[in-house]
Structure formats: structure tokens, C-alpha cells
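Need C-alpha cells for this chain, all 195 residues.
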Amino acid sequence: MADRRAACQHGRVHQTETEETLSGLIEAIILGVVQGLTEFLPISSSGHLLLGQYFLGLDQETFGLSFDAAVHLGTIVAVVSFFRRDLTAMVLAFLRSFPRPDLSDDDQRLAYLVLAATVPAAILGFVLEDLLRTSLRSPWVVVLNLAAVGVLFVVGEAVGKKSRRVSTMNFREALGVGFAQAAALVPGSLVRGRR
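Here are the C-alpha cells for all 195 residues:
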């Protein structure tokens, strides 16, 4: 009788572990769908991921920054695949620029502008890492940022230029883009790669 009871309890434990695994898989799929649907829309995918985790009551240890990085890896693969020709042209232009860059060449200029725009986000991400991992991942921060960015989008569309040529951009503007991208480190704030 004791063996049967132990077997039943073991079966329940195994069933519970299986249910937890299945539940975790379903939650991961839901968040993956949220990421896939929001990444290429003019909204913050990171903010929506965090809100999805919050409303589903998911554990931040399981579905925290590491999970966010994993779902964003899929996005990076898609973006690199889609822009592979442009990225290859930029890398080759950058390598061609040594020992003396020719910034009248649009590909070389774009490569250097992208590098300049990367600097603010890299520095601020490093300096503010602890804050970005804790306080700034609050659902309330996300909601407030989404609202503020919505207002910025409306104003930006009304007053902003619709397109620019690379040859007309300067390094100060590239750094400005970089600081805007650095703000995108906070979930719900700015949207990476959008105008």
C-alpha cells in the first residue's frame, strides 16, 4: 500500500513538473508572439514584453532580461537577414576607408554615422546597467513611457522631416540619434530604428 501511495505521489509530482513545463512553454510562445508582432510596429516591443509578463503574472527570474535577450535574438537574425546587402556594403565601405576615410562616399559616411550613433547607447547602457535591470523595468515606467512616446510621435509626425539623405547628415545629428537610441534602453520609451 505504501508503495502505491509513493507511486501515486511520484506520478503527481511528475504530472506537476510536466504541467509547469507546458505552462512555461505556452507563456514563452505568447511572449514570442508579442515580440514578433510588436518589434516592427512603431511601438516599444520591450515595453510590451514587460507588460505581457506583468499581466500574465510571470516570474521575472524566469522571464526577465535573459528571456528578453533571447527573443530579441530572433529579431536580430531577421533584421540582419533582411538588411544583409546594406550591412555588407557598410562593412566593406568601412574596411575600404582605411587608412583615410572618404566621407563623400555614402556607404563610408553611413558606416561612420552608425558607429557614432552607437556610442551614446553603449556608454549609457554600461553606466546605467543596474538601474536598467531594476527600477526602470517597472510596469508603471513602461506605461508612462509609452504615453510620452505616443505624444512625441504625434508631434514628430507633424513637424519632422520625412526623409533625409545620408550625405546631408552630420556627426552631431548621428550622436543625437544615438542618444535617442540610448533612451530606448528603457522599456516602453523610444522605438529602435523607427522614424
